[in-house]
Amino acid sequence: QVQLVESGGGFVQAGGSLRLSCAASGRTFSMYAMGWFRQAPGKEREFVAAITCSTGNTYYAESVKGRFTISRDNAKNTVYLQMNTLKPEDMAVYYCAAKNTRPVVTTKYDYWGQGTQVTVSS
């Protein structure tokens, strides 16, 4: 079992930045691939970014490439999502999730956090 708790959401003006954090419980965090997802009102949850457990390879949705960066600190059991040059269309509830199987570019993850709201004003 892995428990995930997101933090760092908030209100920001377009063009601004936020850094989301996701703290994981358990001693096997380093064995899990981690992903960030988002869901806007009336829309399906979508993949944003993922980072593998072993090599630390990263993957991004086209809509956030060059603006968002996913990273992890296995010593702190934490994964981060640095979000720069935020746009109004980035506004959503952001979730982190964990899985220990491939593929990582998918919404089919095993463990999910409760989400954190990101609001971007134009």
Q: What attributes does this structure have?
A:
122 residues, single chain, mainly beta, four-stranded antiparallel sheet, globular, seven-stranded mixed sheet
Explain how this protein is built.
This protein has 122 residues and is mainly beta. 0% of the residues lie in helices and 48% in strands. It is built from no helices and eleven strands. Strands 2, 4, 5, 6, 9, 10 and 11 form a seven-stranded mixed sheet that branches. Strands 1-3-8-7 form a four-stranded antiparallel sheet, with no helix packed on it. Strand 7 and strand 8 form a beta hairpin. The protein is globular, with a radius of gyration of 13 Å. The mean pLDDT is 96.
Q: What is shown here, in short?
A:
The protein is built from no helices and eleven strands.
Topology:
Layout: E1 4-7, E2 10-13, E3 18-24, E4 33-39, E5 46-51, E6 58-60, E7 68-73, E8 78-83, E9 92-99, E10 111-112, E11 116-121
Parallel strand pairs: 2-11
Antiparallel strand pairs: 1-3, 3-8, 4-5, 4-9, 5-6, 7-8, 9-10, 9-11
Q: What is the rounded Rg? A: 13 Å
- Structure summary, number of beta strands: 11
Helix/strand order: EEEEEEEEEEE
Tally of contiguous helical segments: 0
Distance between the termini: 40 Å
The general outline is: globular
Q: What composes the largest sheet?
A: 7 strands, mixed
Class of secondary structure makeup: mainly beta
Provide the residue-averaged pLDDT. Answer: 96
**Low-pLDDT regions:** none
Helix proportion range: under 10%
Fraction in beta strands: over 45%
